[in-house]
Amino acid sequence: MTDMILMVTTVYINYRTNLKKEIKRKSWYIYAGLIAAAIDMSCLFLSLYTHWYYVIDELNVYHRSYMSFMTPLCTAFVLAVNLINLIRHRRNMPLQIFGSLCICLILPTVCAIYQYFNYGISYANIALVIALINLFVTVMAEQGKNLAKETKQSDQMAIDLLLSQIGPHFIYNTLGTIKHLCHTDPQKAEETVDQFSVYLRGNIDSLKTNNLISFDQEMKHINAYFAVEKTRFGDQLNTAYDIEESDFLLPALTLQPIVENAVKHGICAREEGGTLTIKEHTEKDAYVIQVKDDGVGFDPDQLQNDAGKIHVGMDNVRERLQMLCNGTMTVSSEKGKGTAVTIIIPKKGDGQK
Predict the structure, then answer these.
(1) Is residue 159 part of a domain?
(2) Which residues, other chains included, contact 106 with Cβ-Cβ below 8 Å and sequence gap of 6+?
(3) Residues 10, 135: one domain?
(4) Looking at the predicted structure, is the pLDDT value of residue 308 above 70?
Protein backbone atom coordinates (compact mmCIF):
# COMPACT_ATOMS: atom_id res chain seq x y z
CA MET A 1 0.00 0.00 0.00
CA THR A 2 2.85 2.38 0.83
CA ASP A 3 4.39 1.87 -2.60
CA MET A 4 1.06 2.58 -4.32
CA ILE A 5 0.70 5.81 -2.34
CA LEU A 6 4.28 6.74 -3.26
CA MET A 7 3.49 6.23 -6.95
CA VAL A 8 0.40 8.41 -6.75
CA THR A 9 2.34 11.07 -4.82
CA THR A 10 5.12 11.02 -7.42
CA VAL A 11 2.67 11.49 -10.29
CA TYR A 12 0.87 14.29 -8.46
CA ILE A 13 4.08 16.16 -7.65
CA ASN A 14 5.13 15.92 -11.31
CA TYR A 15 1.70 17.29 -12.27
CA ARG A 16 1.99 20.22 -9.86
CA THR A 17 5.53 21.12 -10.91
CA ASN A 18 4.46 21.20 -14.58
CA LEU A 19 1.13 22.94 -14.01
CA LYS A 20 2.27 26.40 -15.14
CA LYS A 21 4.43 25.22 -18.01
CA GLU A 22 3.15 25.66 -21.54
CA ILE A 23 4.67 22.32 -22.60
CA LYS A 24 4.11 19.46 -20.16
CA ARG A 25 7.11 17.15 -20.00
CA LYS A 26 7.72 14.13 -17.83
CA SER A 27 11.11 14.59 -16.17
CA TRP A 28 13.47 11.88 -14.96
CA TYR A 29 12.11 12.45 -11.46
CA ILE A 30 8.83 10.74 -12.19
CA TYR A 31 10.51 7.78 -13.89
CA ALA A 32 13.01 7.32 -11.06
CA GLY A 33 10.30 7.51 -8.41
CA LEU A 34 7.92 5.13 -10.18
CA ILE A 35 10.63 2.58 -11.00
CA ALA A 36 11.96 2.51 -7.43
CA ALA A 37 8.47 2.10 -5.98
CA ALA A 38 7.64 -0.60 -8.53
CA ILE A 39 10.83 -2.54 -7.72
CA ASP A 40 10.09 -2.42 -4.01
CA MET A 41 6.50 -3.51 -4.55
CA SER A 42 7.60 -6.41 -6.77
CA CYS A 43 10.19 -7.58 -4.25
CA LEU A 44 7.63 -7.34 -1.48
CA PHE A 45 5.29 -9.58 -3.44
CA LEU A 46 8.04 -12.07 -4.28
CA SER A 47 8.92 -12.26 -0.59
CA LEU A 48 5.90 -14.50 -0.19
CA TYR A 49 8.02 -17.18 -1.86
CA THR A 50 11.63 -16.00 -1.50
CA HIS A 51 11.50 -14.57 2.05
CA TRP A 52 13.69 -11.65 0.99
CA TYR A 53 11.87 -9.08 3.11
CA TYR A 54 10.17 -11.08 5.84
CA VAL A 55 9.49 -14.53 7.23
CA ILE A 56 6.44 -15.83 9.06
CA ASP A 57 7.37 -18.69 11.36
CA GLU A 58 5.34 -21.69 12.45
CA LEU A 59 3.81 -19.65 15.28
CA ASN A 60 2.51 -17.14 12.71
CA VAL A 61 4.91 -14.46 13.95
CA TYR A 62 6.35 -11.92 11.50
CA HIS A 63 10.14 -11.53 11.34
CA ARG A 64 12.26 -9.26 9.18
CA SER A 65 14.57 -10.92 6.71
CA TYR A 66 18.03 -10.00 5.44
CA MET A 67 16.70 -7.62 2.71
CA SER A 68 14.14 -5.85 4.86
CA PHE A 69 16.20 -2.67 4.66
CA MET A 70 15.13 -2.31 1.00
CA THR A 71 11.64 -1.04 1.85
CA PRO A 72 12.72 2.01 3.91
CA LEU A 73 15.61 2.53 1.48
CA CYS A 74 13.31 2.61 -1.58
CA THR A 75 10.82 4.75 0.29
CA ALA A 76 13.51 7.24 1.29
CA PHE A 77 14.88 7.26 -2.27
CA VAL A 78 11.49 7.98 -3.84
CA LEU A 79 10.70 10.69 -1.32
CA ALA A 80 14.17 12.25 -1.75
CA VAL A 81 13.79 12.32 -5.55
CA ASN A 82 10.37 13.94 -5.21
CA LEU A 83 11.72 16.46 -2.71
CA ILE A 84 14.46 17.50 -5.15
CA ASN A 85 11.87 17.86 -7.90
CA LEU A 86 9.64 19.87 -5.59
CA ILE A 87 12.36 22.27 -4.45
CA ARG A 88 13.63 22.86 -7.99
CA HIS A 89 10.14 23.82 -9.20
CA ARG A 90 8.80 25.47 -6.05
CA ARG A 91 7.90 28.64 -7.95
CA ASN A 92 5.38 26.75 -10.07
CA MET A 93 2.90 26.36 -7.21
CA PRO A 94 1.37 28.31 -4.30
CA LEU A 95 3.31 28.41 -1.04
CA GLN A 96 0.61 26.45 0.83
CA ILE A 97 0.72 23.58 -1.69
CA PHE A 98 4.53 23.57 -1.60
CA GLY A 99 4.48 23.34 2.20
CA SER A 100 1.93 20.52 2.24
CA LEU A 101 3.89 18.53 -0.35
CA CYS A 102 7.08 19.00 1.68
CA ILE A 103 5.27 17.59 4.72
CA CYS A 104 4.13 14.67 2.54
CA LEU A 105 7.76 13.90 1.74
CA ILE A 106 9.72 14.78 4.88
CA LEU A 107 7.42 13.41 7.60
CA PRO A 108 7.12 9.86 6.17
CA THR A 109 10.88 9.79 5.48
CA VAL A 110 11.74 10.62 9.08
CA CYS A 111 9.22 8.08 10.35
CA ALA A 112 10.52 5.40 7.97
CA ILE A 113 14.06 5.86 9.29
CA TYR A 114 12.83 5.75 12.88
CA GLN A 115 10.72 2.68 12.15
CA TYR A 116 13.68 0.75 10.75
CA PHE A 117 15.59 1.07 14.02
CA ASN A 118 12.51 0.71 16.24
CA TYR A 119 10.64 -2.37 15.11
CA GLY A 120 6.92 -2.40 15.82
CA ILE A 121 4.27 0.13 14.84
CA SER A 122 4.21 1.19 11.17
CA TYR A 123 4.98 4.85 11.80
CA ALA A 124 5.75 5.55 8.13
CA ASN A 125 2.25 4.55 6.99
CA ILE A 126 0.61 6.58 9.74
CA ALA A 127 2.74 9.62 8.87
CA LEU A 128 1.96 9.24 5.17
CA VAL A 129 -1.79 9.10 5.80
CA ILE A 130 -1.64 12.19 8.03
CA ALA A 131 0.43 14.05 5.43
CA LEU A 132 -1.98 13.12 2.62
CA ILE A 133 -4.97 14.29 4.67
CA ASN A 134 -3.17 17.61 5.20
CA LEU A 135 -2.49 17.82 1.45
CA PHE A 136 -6.12 17.06 0.64
CA VAL A 137 -7.35 19.83 2.95
CA THR A 138 -4.84 22.28 1.45
CA VAL A 139 -5.82 21.43 -2.14
CA MET A 140 -9.52 21.81 -1.32
CA ALA A 141 -8.81 25.20 0.25
CA GLU A 142 -6.85 26.25 -2.85
CA GLN A 143 -9.69 25.19 -5.15
CA GLY A 144 -12.18 27.11 -3.02
CA LYS A 145 -9.95 30.18 -3.17
CA ASN A 146 -9.60 29.88 -6.95
CA LEU A 147 -13.35 29.47 -7.35
CA ALA A 148 -14.00 32.57 -5.25
CA LYS A 149 -11.43 34.47 -7.32
CA GLU A 150 -13.07 33.41 -10.59
CA THR A 151 -16.50 34.33 -9.25
CA LYS A 152 -15.25 37.76 -8.19
CA GLN A 153 -13.57 38.22 -11.56
CA SER A 154 -16.77 37.25 -13.36
CA ASP A 155 -18.78 39.68 -11.21
CA GLN A 156 -16.32 42.48 -11.94
CA MET A 157 -16.44 41.73 -15.67
CA ALA A 158 -20.24 41.90 -15.59
CA ILE A 159 -20.10 45.24 -13.75
CA ASP A 160 -17.53 46.64 -16.19
CA LEU A 161 -19.62 45.46 -19.11
CA LEU A 162 -22.77 46.99 -17.67
CA LEU A 163 -21.08 50.33 -17.03
CA SER A 164 -19.71 50.35 -20.56
CA GLN A 165 -23.17 49.69 -22.02
CA ILE A 166 -25.25 52.14 -19.99
CA GLY A 167 -23.57 55.24 -21.33
CA PRO A 168 -24.77 58.65 -20.15
CA HIS A 169 -25.33 59.85 -23.72
CA PHE A 170 -27.72 56.98 -24.45
CA ILE A 171 -29.69 57.68 -21.27
CA TYR A 172 -29.80 61.44 -21.91
CA ASN A 173 -30.86 60.95 -25.53
CA THR A 174 -33.55 58.44 -24.56
CA LEU A 175 -34.95 60.70 -21.84
CA GLY A 176 -34.90 63.61 -24.26
CA THR A 177 -36.84 61.55 -26.80
CA ILE A 178 -39.40 60.53 -24.17
CA LYS A 179 -39.79 64.17 -23.08
CA HIS A 180 -40.48 65.21 -26.66
CA LEU A 181 -42.99 62.38 -27.15
CA CYS A 182 -44.86 63.40 -24.02
CA HIS A 183 -45.94 66.53 -25.94
CA THR A 184 -46.34 65.07 -29.42
CA ASP A 185 -47.37 61.43 -28.88
CA PRO A 186 -48.12 60.49 -25.24
CA GLN A 187 -49.05 56.92 -26.17
CA LYS A 188 -45.70 56.41 -27.89
CA ALA A 189 -43.95 58.01 -24.92
CA GLU A 190 -45.58 55.48 -22.59
CA GLU A 191 -44.51 52.58 -24.81
CA THR A 192 -40.95 53.91 -24.95
CA VAL A 193 -40.80 54.21 -21.16
CA ASP A 194 -41.93 50.58 -20.87
CA GLN A 195 -39.27 49.37 -23.31
CA PHE A 196 -36.58 51.52 -21.69
CA SER A 197 -37.43 50.04 -18.28
CA VAL A 198 -37.19 46.51 -19.73
CA TYR A 199 -33.80 47.40 -21.18
CA LEU A 200 -32.49 48.83 -17.89
CA ARG A 201 -33.92 45.92 -15.90
CA GLY A 202 -32.14 43.46 -18.19
CA ASN A 203 -28.82 45.20 -17.62
CA ILE A 204 -29.25 45.38 -13.86
CA ASP A 205 -30.50 41.78 -13.55
CA SER A 206 -27.30 40.59 -15.22
CA LEU A 207 -25.40 41.73 -12.13
CA LYS A 208 -27.41 39.49 -9.83
CA THR A 209 -26.29 36.15 -11.23
CA ASN A 210 -23.38 34.40 -12.85
CA ASN A 211 -25.71 31.74 -14.23
CA LEU A 212 -26.44 31.42 -17.92
CA ILE A 213 -29.70 32.77 -19.31
CA SER A 214 -31.89 31.57 -22.14
CA PHE A 215 -31.41 32.83 -25.68
CA ASP A 216 -35.02 34.06 -25.64
CA GLN A 217 -34.29 36.16 -22.55
CA GLU A 218 -31.29 37.74 -24.25
CA MET A 219 -33.39 38.46 -27.34
CA LYS A 220 -36.06 40.12 -25.17
CA HIS A 221 -33.37 42.44 -23.86
CA ILE A 222 -32.21 43.20 -27.40
CA ASN A 223 -35.76 43.85 -28.63
CA ALA A 224 -36.29 46.37 -25.84
CA TYR A 225 -33.11 48.18 -26.90
CA PHE A 226 -34.19 48.15 -30.55
CA ALA A 227 -37.60 49.55 -29.63
CA VAL A 228 -35.99 52.50 -27.84
CA GLU A 229 -33.50 53.20 -30.63
CA LYS A 230 -36.20 52.77 -33.29
CA THR A 231 -38.11 55.59 -31.62
CA ARG A 232 -35.08 57.83 -32.03
CA PHE A 233 -33.87 56.85 -35.50
CA GLY A 234 -37.06 55.69 -37.22
CA ASP A 235 -36.53 54.08 -40.63
CA GLN A 236 -32.77 54.54 -40.41
CA LEU A 237 -32.60 51.50 -38.13
CA ASN A 238 -33.93 48.19 -39.41
CA THR A 239 -33.65 44.68 -38.01
CA ALA A 240 -33.94 41.16 -39.41
CA TYR A 241 -33.98 37.83 -37.57
CA ASP A 242 -33.28 34.32 -38.83
CA ILE A 243 -33.46 32.08 -35.76
CA GLU A 244 -33.34 28.31 -36.19
CA GLU A 245 -33.10 27.25 -32.52
CA SER A 246 -33.63 29.23 -29.33
CA ASP A 247 -33.70 26.49 -26.69
CA PHE A 248 -30.18 26.95 -25.32
CA LEU A 249 -28.28 29.00 -22.76
CA LEU A 250 -25.61 31.68 -22.99
CA PRO A 251 -24.01 34.25 -20.64
CA ALA A 252 -26.09 37.33 -19.90
CA LEU A 253 -25.06 40.42 -21.88
CA THR A 254 -23.48 38.37 -24.65
CA LEU A 255 -25.33 39.69 -27.69
CA GLN A 256 -26.49 43.00 -26.22
CA PRO A 257 -23.06 44.74 -26.21
CA ILE A 258 -22.39 43.49 -29.74
CA VAL A 259 -25.74 44.78 -30.96
CA GLU A 260 -25.21 48.18 -29.33
CA ASN A 261 -21.76 48.53 -30.87
CA ALA A 262 -23.20 47.63 -34.27
CA VAL A 263 -25.94 50.26 -33.95
CA LYS A 264 -23.83 53.05 -32.45
CA HIS A 265 -20.61 52.67 -34.40
CA GLY A 266 -21.80 50.91 -37.54
CA ILE A 267 -25.33 51.63 -38.70
CA CYS A 268 -25.85 55.06 -37.12
CA ALA A 269 -22.49 56.20 -38.47
CA ARG A 270 -24.01 56.00 -41.97
CA GLU A 271 -26.19 58.89 -43.03
CA GLU A 272 -28.78 56.58 -44.58
CA GLY A 273 -28.72 54.11 -41.67
CA GLY A 274 -28.82 50.37 -42.27
CA THR A 275 -29.98 46.94 -41.16
CA LEU A 276 -28.80 44.71 -38.35
CA THR A 277 -29.32 40.98 -38.84
CA ILE A 278 -29.22 38.32 -36.14
CA LYS A 279 -28.91 34.75 -37.39
CA GLU A 280 -28.74 31.48 -35.46
CA HIS A 281 -28.25 27.99 -36.79
CA THR A 282 -27.54 24.71 -35.08
CA GLU A 283 -24.66 22.46 -35.95
CA LYS A 284 -23.98 18.93 -34.73
CA ASP A 285 -22.08 19.99 -31.63
CA ALA A 286 -22.61 23.75 -31.33
CA TYR A 287 -24.97 26.70 -31.61
CA VAL A 288 -23.74 29.38 -34.01
CA ILE A 289 -24.95 32.97 -33.67
CA GLN A 290 -24.06 35.75 -36.10
CA VAL A 291 -24.70 39.46 -35.55
CA LYS A 292 -24.17 41.30 -38.83
CA ASP A 293 -24.64 44.92 -39.85
CA ASP A 294 -24.21 46.81 -43.13
CA GLY A 295 -22.75 49.87 -41.43
CA VAL A 296 -19.49 51.70 -42.03
CA GLY A 297 -17.26 48.82 -40.90
CA PHE A 298 -13.76 49.28 -39.57
CA ASP A 299 -10.16 48.24 -39.96
CA PRO A 300 -9.67 44.91 -38.08
CA ASP A 301 -6.47 46.28 -36.55
CA GLN A 302 -8.56 49.04 -34.98
CA LEU A 303 -10.24 46.45 -32.74
CA GLN A 304 -6.96 46.06 -30.87
CA ASN A 305 -5.70 49.61 -31.07
CA ASP A 306 -8.98 51.29 -30.07
CA ALA A 307 -10.74 48.50 -28.17
CA GLY A 308 -11.41 50.71 -25.17
CA LYS A 309 -13.31 53.29 -27.23
CA ILE A 310 -15.16 52.14 -30.34
CA HIS A 311 -15.41 48.44 -29.54
CA VAL A 312 -16.19 48.74 -25.86
CA GLY A 313 -16.88 45.45 -24.16
CA MET A 314 -15.78 43.10 -26.98
CA ASP A 315 -12.90 41.59 -25.03
CA ASN A 316 -15.13 41.35 -21.99
CA VAL A 317 -17.76 39.39 -23.94
CA ARG A 318 -15.11 37.07 -25.35
CA GLU A 319 -13.65 36.33 -21.91
CA ARG A 320 -17.06 35.70 -20.33
CA LEU A 321 -18.00 33.35 -23.17
CA GLN A 322 -14.83 31.35 -22.65
CA MET A 323 -15.15 31.32 -18.86
CA LEU A 324 -18.85 30.49 -18.52
CA CYS A 325 -19.60 28.15 -21.44
CA ASN A 326 -16.33 27.49 -23.29
CA GLY A 327 -17.63 29.57 -26.20
CA THR A 328 -15.70 31.54 -28.81
CA MET A 329 -16.21 34.84 -30.60
CA THR A 330 -14.70 36.04 -33.88
CA VAL A 331 -15.03 39.45 -35.52
CA SER A 332 -14.70 40.25 -39.21
CA SER A 333 -15.17 43.67 -40.76
CA GLU A 334 -14.50 45.67 -43.89
CA LYS A 335 -14.63 49.43 -44.19
CA GLY A 336 -17.70 50.58 -46.06
CA LYS A 337 -19.37 47.14 -46.02
CA GLY A 338 -20.10 46.35 -42.40
CA THR A 339 -19.17 44.04 -39.56
CA ALA A 340 -20.02 40.45 -38.65
CA VAL A 341 -19.55 38.91 -35.21
CA THR A 342 -19.82 35.12 -34.95
CA ILE A 343 -20.34 33.35 -31.62
CA ILE A 344 -20.03 29.59 -31.20
CA ILE A 345 -21.43 27.93 -28.07
CA PRO A 346 -20.64 24.20 -27.70
CA LYS A 347 -23.58 21.92 -26.97
CA LYS A 348 -21.46 19.80 -24.66
CA GLY A 349 -20.61 22.86 -22.59
CA ASP A 350 -22.97 24.88 -20.42
CA GLY A 351 -24.83 26.28 -23.40
CA GLN A 352 -27.40 23.49 -23.36
CA LYS A 353 -30.53 23.32 -21.25
Answers:
(1) no
(2) 79, 83
(3) yes
(4) no
